[in-house]
Each structure stands twice: as structure tokens, then as C-alpha cells.
Design goal:
696 residues, alpha+beta, Neutral Protease, domain 2, 5-stranded mixed β-sheet, 4-stranded mixed β-sheet, 20 strands, 14% strand, hydrolase, Aminopeptidase_N-like_N_sf, protease
Length: 696
């Protein structure tokens, strides 16, 4: 038995009578009466544990907690469990990590314990503000609707966000725990300022938004700080790379439809058009973090942190809207003369938070003119020119490898004489260096060709994140009808010299769709794509294949390899690279000879798939046998269920689908997945369709 609370946004009213609004803060006295074999936890430390008998003579434990600090109803919390914990003290703050007894005994929460204290200290030092509670409990639940919740003093996580198991060594799990913990701890600062992710929730707890329309002040700021905390405790992570990969690029792909809401909406519009729960989405988290990232870049981190410190100290234990934050930043800007802004902080930032979408900047190098318009799909009939949004855009830029002073585009079009280029093909311009601004860039053909030539001659002349951005912008512009596909492909010619796997991932996302069937159907494109990509993939494929065969442990700290190597390897095999197919067959045969052998986790899924694909019924039967072993984990079963659909003999696919109808072997959910797996395979679509119609 287990009880845990999740009261955000408006569920406190279902637990106790209250004015359940974020602006109405109070102190709370909490007492819980519970079974004596369980422990009760709440926001504050327990100050008394006593016993009582009910009318039937049964004995109960009464746990009374200290009076809370002044806080909002939605972060009151309680857990009643029979968990165990590990503990340490950091600067007088007792930190306890609670989980199932077996998980604690096996050391699965030790990593979370080791990073939580340092993240708290990092934030306290960075923001010059002390954590006001005497204890912090982090609880790992077997099931939890959210990834994590920043209740002040009692943070709640689902197990996968807090536990690090030995088998997770090559999964990227450690990094994700760091990010989640930081986010939630960041919120603690903001009640005071989530565990990598959690620790940053000081932001909603110290200073809370007036109402839910400014939720981004909580979640956007915490999502920004979670990456600072994660890279502090895991220094091998690159802050720039992981922020763009996790936050900026995903939201740029999403925030480009007319109906997507703006970051900050009026209370009336929220009440008319949105449910409160719908506000907890990527616009709030990722766009909020991206706008904060841009703000910290044009202000400089020093001024940004100084302004935040003022904001948190002045408004501690009270409420704020975004204008309060702009006021504190303006005060810091006015008190110095290093950073000059083209307009007030409020005017600049309202152009990003109160309008939906983001701009695309179009650069004409022969005149030095930059124009802006909202980035919308030109192929979509609903995208009309009546959306005349303009933004006040900070432009970081580089010329021939040298950084240039920040420029501002504060109207729809403006000419910058210093951005005109000469006739020399070695004279080039790069805008939005390291993706410091929340926008895309559309270069004219002249500069695009110069950048493509530069990449072929010396790819490292352009920073890694900017190479990623160039490619992603070009394909996004192509998909939305701004440029032709030839222009986008121009920037991929250099890829044989690209050694960053996170850049390769963006290339493959754009060139090799998840549903490969659509590309295969286009018989003209597939052989060209195969020839073009394979030639360029060989160096990076051989580099990683070599590491896997010689010493896979070297990849233990390579987060991007852990996350993206599977896609790279699967694509190489799909394109028919013989080395890849041979390696898959070799490792799969090794597993068949010795079922105790572990195929390297990073490429287990494609190896199982192509091991089955390159084999006969013998290989298929082995996968089926391993799938049915009772000690297989859910993860292993998922990989094998997918691999069984990779068979290239029709009769094996028919048998696989037929097995899927068995109530004793599979749930109906599994059956639908099996049909979907077959549909995406080269020969599977016709077979799956026949099977569905025959067995309707």
C-alpha cells in the first residue's frame, strides 16, 4: 500500500477546504493519522509521533509536522509509505532519498543522493540565496503521472527519474536523473528560487506566479536552470549541446503553427480557451527555457543572475507576474553602462512572450539587409500574410571566424552596412552564433554556398552547435517552402568530415524518416539516398563500430553516443552497409552460442533486428525463445518483439502475426504493436494488410 499526493494545479481543494489559488499563500499545520507499520512524510519535519486508539481498540500512529513556511496550496504534500531511505547533510539541510526497501538496499538511489546536495549548494552560491527549510525529502514512486513534482521539502519522482541501476550504464539515464533533479531543486529556490530537474524549483516555491497564465515563470526558469545544475554535477556534459538538443531544437519544430498559444496569455483567455492542465506543455517548459536562455545571453550571465537575485530576495514568499521580473532586470540594466539595449526590457521581452511563434530572419549579403517574418508553413493554405508579428531580435554574429558586436533588429527590415560582404568566396557571415536567439535564419544563395564550401574545407571553423543549427534551419526552411531541397542538401556535402553524433542525428531525422516505407516506395530516391549517405556515414560508423568491438566502456560518459548511436547504426544497416550487417550477424550468433552473452546495449535493438533479418527461421526461433523466457525484462521483451518483425521471409511474418492473436501470449495492445512493426518493414505492408482484413 502507498499514498502520495499531487496537488498541482488545482487539487488541494479535494484534500482540504481552501482558497486553492497560487496567489493565496498561508502557513500549514499538518497532522496525519496512519497505520503504525508505515511512515508519514510531509513538507516539514515531524515534530511529534504519538499513538492513539480508535473506537474498535485498534492502534494508530499520529505524526505531527512543524508549521510550514508561507506557501501556495498546490505545493502542500504528503506521502504514507513503508519505504526505506538514505541520507546526507549539506550545509545543515538534511537530505533523504526514499524508495522501495529493495531499491535502497541495492544502491539504486545512491547517485541521486550524491548529486542532490551539490546541486543545492551550486544554486545557493549562484543565486546568493539560502534554502529556507531544515530538510528535503525526495521520494521515488513506482508509478507517478508526472516525471516529478517540486513540493517544497517533499519532492516526488517516478522511479525512472531518480533511480540509477547498474544495467543503466549506457542508457543516458544518469544524465536524465541529473537534469530532472536539478529542475525540481530549482523550484525549491523559487518557492525558494526539479532532482537535477527538480532541484531548480525554488523558482515556483519562493516566488510564485500570480496566476497560472504566467506558469512559465515557474517552469521556464526551472527548465533553464536544470541544465546549469546538470552540467555542474556532470562536467563532461556540454551545456550548449545538451540544451540545444533537448530544449531549443524540439520547440523550434513545434512552435510554428498559428494556433499554438503564446508563452504568456491573459487570465481571461486562459479561462475561456484552455484547461489548466493543458498549460503544462512544451511551450511553457521549453519555450520558457529558450527565451530565458536568449535573455541571459544578450544581458550577459552576470547581469542576469544579479537581476534574478534581486527578484527572488524582494519577492520571497509572495507572488509575481512577468512584469515584476522585467522591472528587476531593468533596474540592473539601468545601474550599469556595459550592456546597452535598443528598448526597455519589458518591450523587448513582451515581443517574445506575448506573441505566438517566432521569426525567421532573411539575410541579403549584397546589401546587408535583414528582414523578419513569422516562421509559418508557406505550403499550408491557412498560413496567410495577415500575421504581421515583429520581434525585437538580438543578433549575435560572426564574420570569417571572428565574433562581432551584438546587433538588434527592432523592426520588420533593417540594413546593416557592416554585414555587406566582398566578392571573395572566403568572406562569409554566420548569424545567431551558437543558437543564442530563438529564431531561424534564411541565408541568401551567395552566403549559403560560401558556408557550404567552408564546411567542406574546414568544418571546425564553424562551432558545432552552429553546424547543427545550419542544417536544421535549412531543412525546416525547405519543408516549409522557403527554399529548395538542393539548397538544404548543399550543407550536407561535408558530412564525411562530421564527427559529432548529435549533428548526425539531426541529419538522419531530416533525411531518413521514422517510417522508412515511404522512402523505400520512392524507387528513384532510395538508391540515390543510399549512395549519397553511405559514402558520408562511413567514417563516423567505423569510428563507433571500432569502439564497440574493442572497448565499449569508453562510451560510458558519451551521452550523445548513448542516445543516438542506435539510430546511426540502424540507418547504416538499413542502407545496406555490409560491415554493419556482418557485425549484426556476428554479435547475434555470439549470443545464440552463449545466451549469457550481452549484446552491447547501445546497439542491441538494431543488432537483434538485423540478426533476425540476415538469418533464417533458426535465428527467428531463437529470438522467440528468448522473448518467452520468464526472466526477460520488459525492455528486453520490447526489443525482441520488434526484432521478430524484421524477418525477410514472408511465412515468418505471417507466423509472427498469427502468434499475435493468441490471448494467452499477448495483450491486445501488444497485438496492435506487432501489426505496426510489420507495416514499417520493407515487405510487411501488404502482409499486415492481408492479415488485418482476414482476421478483422
Amino acid at each position: 500500500m502507498l499514498i502520495a499526493s499531487q496537488l498541482e494545479p488545482a487539487y488541494a481543494r479535494t484534500v482540504y477546504p481552501c482558497f486553492d489559488e497560487p496567489a493565496m499563500k498561508a502557513t500549514f499545520n499538518i497532522r496525519i493519522i496512519h497505520d503504525p507499520s508505515y511512515v508519514a512524510l510531509s513538507n516539514m519535519p515531524a515534530i511529534d509521533v504519538s499513538e492513539m486508539k480508535d473506537e474498535n481498540g485498534s492502534l494508530w500512529t499520529v505524526t505531527t509536522f512543524d508549521t510550514s513556511l508561507k506557501m501556495s496550496t498546490y505545493i502542500t504534500a504528503f506521502v504514507i509509505c513503508d519505504f526505506d531511505y538514505v541520507t546526507r547533510t549539506e550545509r545543515g539541510n538534511e537530505i533523504r532519498i526514499w524508495a522501495r526497501k529493495e531499491a535502497v538496499k541495492n544502491g539504486y538511489v545512491d547517485y541521486a543522493l550524491n548529486i542532490t546536495g551539490p546541486i543545492f549548494s551550486f544554486l545557493e552560491d549562484l543565486l546568493n540565496i539560502s534554502y529556507p527549510l531544515p530538510k528535503t525529502d525526495l521520494v521515488a514512486l513506482p508509478h507517478f503521472g508526472a516525471d516529478a513534482m517540486e513540493n517544497w521539502g517533499l519532492m516526488i519522482f517516478q522511479e525512472s527519474s531518480l533511480m540509477y541501476l547498474p544495467r543503466d550504464k549506457f542508457t543516458g539515464r544518469k544524465t536524465l536523473i541529473a537534469i530532472t533533479t536539478s529542475h525540481e531543486i530549482g523550484h525549491q529556490a523559487c518557492e525558494m528560487l526539479r532532482h537535477f530537474f527538480f532541484l531548480f524549483k525554488w523558482f515556483g516555491n519562493l516566488v510564485t506566479m500570480n496566476w497560472w497564465n504566467d506558469l512559465w515563470l515557474n517552469e521556464g526558469l526551472a527548465s533553464f536552470f536544470e541544465y546549469l545544475g546538470a552540467t555542474f554535477v556532470e562536467p563532461k556534459l556540454s551545456l550548449d549541446k545538451i540544451f540545444y538538443d533537448h530544449v531549443l531544437l524540439p520547440i523550434l519544430r513545434e512552435d510554428n503553427e498559428i494556433e499554438v498559444r503564446s508563452l504568456s496569455e491573459s487570465e481571461d483567455k486562459i479561462k475561456e480557451s484552455f484547461s489548466l492542465m493543458s498549460l503544462f506543455n512544451s511551450i511553457t517548459y521549453n519555450k520558457g527555457a529558450s527565451i530565458t536562455w536568449m535573455l541571459s545571453r544578450f544581458l550577459t550571465e552576470k547581469l542576469f543572475i544579479r537581476a534574478l537575485n534581486s527578484y527572488l530576495k524582494t519577492l520571497s514568499f509572495s507572488n509575481a507576474n512577468q512584469d515584476d521580473l522585467w522591472t528587476h532586470i531593468q533596474m540592473v540594466v539601468d545601474a550599469q553602462d556595459e550592456v546597452q539595449l535598443p528598448a526597455s526590457v519589458k518591450k523587448i521581452m513582451d515581443s517574445w512572450t506575448c506573441q505566438n511563434g517566432f521569426p525567421v530572419l532573411t539575410l541579403n549579403l549584397s546589401t546587408g539587409t535583414i528582414s523578419q517574418e513569422q516562421f509559418l508553413n508557406r505550403k499550408n493554405e491557412n498560413s496567410t500574410d495577415s500575421y504581421n508579428n515583429t520581434w525585437i531580435v538580438p543578433i549575435s554574429w560572426m564574420r570569417n571566424g571572428s565574433s562581432q558586436p551584438l546587433m538588434w533588429l527592432d523592426k520588420s527590415s533593417k540594413t546593416f552596412p557592416e554585414m555587406r560582404v566582398s566578392e571573395s568566396e572566403y568572406d562569409w557571415i554566420l548569424l545567431n552564433v551558437n543558437l543564442s536567439g530563438y529564431y531561424r535564419v534564411n541565408y541568401d544563395q551567395l552566403n549559403l554556398k560560401r558556408l557550404a564550401r567552408l564546411l567542406e574545407n574546414d568544418p571546425k571553423a564553424i562551432p558545432a552547435v552552429s553546424r547543427l543549427q545550419l542544417i536544421d534551419d535549412a531543412f525546416a526552411l525547405m519543408h516549409f517552402g522557403y527554399i529548395q531541397i538542393e539548397s538544404a542538401l548543399e550543407l550536407t556535402k561535408y558530412l564525411a568530415r562530421e564527427d559529432e553524433i548529435f549533428i548526425w542525428n539531426v541529419v538522419l531525422l531530416n533525411l531518413v524518416p521514422e517510417n522508412l516505407e515511404s522512402t523505400l516506395k520512392n524507387y528513384e530516391v532510395y538508391p540515390l539516398l543510399k549512395k549519397y549517405l553511405l559514402k558520408r556515414m562511413l567514417p563516423i560508423y567505423h569510428y563507433y563500430a571500432g569502439l564497440i568491438q574493442q572497448n565499449v566502456d569508453t562510451l560510458e560518459d558519451d551521452y550523445f553516443a548513448q542516445v543516438y548511436l542506435e539510430k546511426l547504426f540502424a540507418t547504416a544497416c538499413w542502407l545496406g552497409l555490409q560491415d554493419c550487417l556482418d557485425l549484426s550477424s556476428e554479435l547475434y550468433a555470439k549470443w545464440m552460442d552463449n545466451p549469457e552473452y550481452n549484446i552491447p546495449f547501445l546497439i542491441r535493438k538494431p543488432v537483434c533486428c538485423y540478426g533476425v533479418a540476415m538469418g533464417s527461421d533458426k535465428e527467428w526461433n531463437f529470438a522467440w525463445e528468448m522473448y518467452n523466457q520468464t526472466n526477460s525484462t520488459k525492455e528486453d521483451k520490447d526489443i525482441l518483439l520488434s526484432a521478430l518483425s524484421c524477418a525477410r521471409e514472408s511465412w515468418l511474418l505471417y507466423r509472427y502475426l498469427q502468434y499475435g492473436l493468441s490471448d494467452t501470449l499477448f495483450s491486445s495492445n501488444c497485438t496492435s504493436n506487432m501489426i505496426l512493426y510489420v507495416v514499417t518493414k520493407d515487405i510487411g505492408q501488404r502482409i499486415a494488410w492481408e492479415f488485418v482484413t482476414e482476421n478483422w
